[in-house]
Description:
Blueprint: H1 17-38, E1 50-52, H2 55-61, H3 64-87, H4 95-104, H5 108-115, H6 118-122, H7 124-136, H8 154-168, H9 176-197, H10 199-205, H11 207-216, E2 221-223, E3 229-232, H12 234-238, H13 247-263, H14 267-273, H15 279-303, H16 315-319, H17 324-349, H18 371-374, H19 376-405, H20 416-433
Antiparallel strand pairs: 1-3, 2-3
Amino acid sequence: MTYAHGLGGGSDLPIPANFAILGGTAALVVSFAVLLLAWRRSVLEDGTRRALVPERFAAVLDGAAFAITLRVLGLLVFGYTAYAAVLGPDLLSNPTFGVFYVWLWVGIVPASLLFGRFYRAISPARTLHLVVARLTGSDPGRGVLELPRWVGYWPAAVGLFAFVWLELVYPLSTYLGPVRLWFVIYLAAMLVGGALFGDRWLERADPFEVYSTLLAHLSVWGRDEQGRLVVTSPLRNLTRIEPAPGLVATVAVLLGSTAWDSYRESPTWVRFSQTISQPTLVDTGMLLGFAVLVGAVFTLATGFLPREVEDRRLVPRRMAHSVVPIVVGYMVAHYLTFFVEVGQRTLAQMSDPMVTGANLFGTADLQINYWLSEHPTFLATVKVLAIVLGHVVGVIAAHDRALRLLPARLHVTGQLGLLAVMVLYTFGGLYLLFGA
C-alpha cells in the first residue's frame, strides 16, 4: 500500500488542460466583474440574517452529556490508535498511518464543513487538558499566565508546518517512530501550553483545532454575540473569523503545502529531484518557499493601500478569511480520491491493529470501492469545479470585506491587486492539478 496522494499527471484527467485552466480563470474574472456591478455595499457582516437553533435541540447539542460523549469517543479513538502505534508492527498495514494522515488530516475537512468545530469537540489534547485541570483543582479556562495578543495564530502556523513537513518532506514519514515522536511532542506542547495559558492556548496553538475552526466558518453552524447556537449562511459565518496575528501565515501554510504536494510529484520536479544530493533539505526549502510565496503575494496584494485607509497594515489579516474557501477547494481537488479510497482501507485495518489477521470490528474484509478512480471524467470535473468554486467564494468574501474597509473611490481599484492574486492562485491550482 502506498500513501503517495498526488493527483497524477494530466493524462489521468480526461479534460483538456488548456480548456480547464482558461475556463476556470475566465470564470473567476467574470465573477469579479459581476460583483463590481451588482454588489455595491457590504451585506455579509450585518449579523441579522441568522436563525436561532430551537431551544430543545440547542440544549442537547450544548449539554454536558453530549459534550462528554464526544470527548469520550475522541479519547477512545486516540487511545486505540496509540495502542496500534506503540504495540503494533511497523508496517504500512498498521492503521496508525491511515488515522493520522487520512482520517485526521483530510477527514477534518468534511467533518468541519458538516458539523462545525469538529476537532474542538473530540480533541484528545483538550480532553486531557480538562482532566489535568480537574485533578489539580485549577480552572481549565485560565492558566498562570495570560497569552499575549501578539501571539495570535502563529503557534498554529508553526504546528501546521511541522505536520506537513513530516507528511510531505521527511523521508521516514511512513515509519511509526517519527509519527509517535511527532504526536508526543504535539501533546506535550498542548498540555504545557494549556497549563500556562489555559484554553486560549489550545484555540490558538493546536494546529488541528485551528484548522478545523477555520473550516467550520464555512459551515451553517455558528454562534451569536451571546454564544447561542445559530444557523447561518456559510458566507456570513466566514466573516466571523477573528483577524488575529498569524492568520495570513496559517492559511499560507495550508494553501502553500497543498500546492507543493502537487508540484513535487510533477514530472519536472521528479526528474530534478533525482539529481540533487540533499533532497530532504531542498524539499524543506521548497515547502517553506511555497508557503512564504503564497503569504507574501497575498500580503503585497492587500497591504499596499493609500494612507487614508484606516489601519492598512492590518488589511491582509482582515482579508485572509477569503483564502479559507480556496484552501477547501484545493483540499477537495487534491485529496478526494486519497480520502475515499485509502480512508476505506484504513477502516478495514482498524479491525486488525496488530496485523495478526484479527477482525475486531468486522471490517477487515471490507472491499474497497474504487468508483471514483473508475470514473475519471466525473472525478476531473469535481476537481476542477472545487478549485474554481473555492476561488469564486473567496472572491465574494474578499469583495464584501473590501467594501467595508476601503473608501468608496477605491472600491474598484483597491481590489485589483486581490483579483490578480486570485487569478494567479486559480491558474496555478489548475496548472498543478493537470500535472504541472
